[in-house]
């Protein structure tokens, strides 16, 4: 175990800047395309399957593009899950959350500005229908977010022997699955940035907007605790966990980066161990 003096803060690395920029761009593109595919045009209105596939395929594409740079969380709930699971630092957690919200606002703003007024009127904002209670919507958001985050942890777990080349598609299908049922209850948030951006642009925060934050956050926390501390606990010392929390990595890792399309070794391995059990690639 290297001493603290031999470690470098990840926030000082140029790769950190590229990572938070990727979260901004990835979230912006995700919302721009996914929301745009959900608009009701006069010629043909989208059905639940089309909307679900639009969200899922867009997520899969963003993970494939940005996964090796930032992990492609593009979702504050996923970032919270990785933080609770002791897989990212508090600095990365804060920066990711901020850039994801800003990216969501940018993406929703772009698609809103280029779409005719009568088409963009609802911006596919999340809402709770009259025949669904707040409690029912809250439970659905928890369950669906839990399912998606558990899938993310599973398919990006470096300890799995099989190839993780299908991770992006698996995560995208998990998001599609969630939307196939969630659209009927809440429009399917499972991503606070996705709910917050349309609400800001439309200036409409309904009385149940808290559900689209608390539901995904609680579902993500439950998934992080169950996967990382119960089902597949990481065998790390207190010093290693503290190094991950603070965002330090061994400078020697710069010379140990193996080839391949995965995240920078300094972030996959912030504890300084060559065989750190988890990487930081993710979804949404």
TrEMBL record:
Protein name: Aquaporin-5-like
Biased composition (Polar residues): 268-284
InterPro entries noted in UniProt: Aquaporin-like, Aquaporin_transptr, MIP, MIP_CS
GO molecular function, a single term: water channel activity
Keyword annotations: Membrane, Transmembrane, Transmembrane helix, Transport
Protein location: Membrane
Region of interest (Disordered), residue spans: 255-284
Record GO biological process: carbon dioxide transport
Principal subcellular localization: membrane
GO cellular-component term (any): apical plasma membrane
Gene: LOC117663119
Entry's family note: Belongs to the MIP/aquaporin (TC 1.A.8) family.
Organism from which the protein derives: Pantherophis guttatus
Topology within the bilayer: Multi-pass membrane protein
Transmembrane segments annotated in the record for this chain: 16-39, 51-72, 93-114, 134-155, 167-187, 207-231
């Amino acid at each position: 175990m290297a001493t603290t003096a031999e470690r470098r803060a990840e926030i000082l690395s140029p790769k950190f800047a590229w990572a938070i920029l990727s979260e901004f761009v990835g979230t912006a593109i995700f919302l721009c395309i996914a929301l745009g595919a959900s608009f009701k045009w006069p010629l043909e209105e989208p059905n639940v399957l089309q909307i679900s596939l639009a969200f899922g395929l867009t997520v899969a594409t963003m993970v494939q593009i940005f996964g090796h740079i930032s992990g492609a969380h593009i979702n504050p709930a996923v970032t919270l899950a990785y933080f609770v699971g002791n897989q990212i630092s508090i600095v990365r957690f804060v920066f990711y959350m901020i850039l994801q919200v800003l990216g969501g606002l940018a993406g929703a703003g772009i698609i809103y500005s280029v779409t005719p007024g009568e088409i963009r009127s609802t911006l596919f904002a999340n809402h709770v229908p009259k025949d669904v209670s707040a409690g029912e919507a809250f439970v659905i958001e928890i369950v669906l977010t839990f399912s998606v985050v558990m899938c993310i942890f599973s398919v990006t777990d470096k300890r799995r022997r099989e190839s993780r080349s299908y991770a992006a598609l698996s995560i995208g299908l998990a998001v599609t699955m969630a939307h196939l049922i969630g659209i009927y209850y809440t429009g399917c948030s499972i991503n606070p940035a996705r709910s917050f951006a349309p609400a800001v642009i439309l200036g409409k925060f309904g009385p149940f907007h808290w559900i689209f934050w608390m539901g995904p956050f609680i579902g993500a926390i439950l998934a992080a605790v169950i996967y990382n501390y119960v089902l597949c606990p990481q065998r790390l010392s207190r010093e290693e966990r503290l190094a991950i929390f603070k965002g330090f990595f061994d400078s020697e890792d710069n010379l140990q980066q193996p080839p391949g399309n995965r995240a920078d070794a300094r972030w996959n391995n912030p504890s300084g161990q060559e065989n750190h059990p988890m990487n930081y690639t993710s979804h949404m």
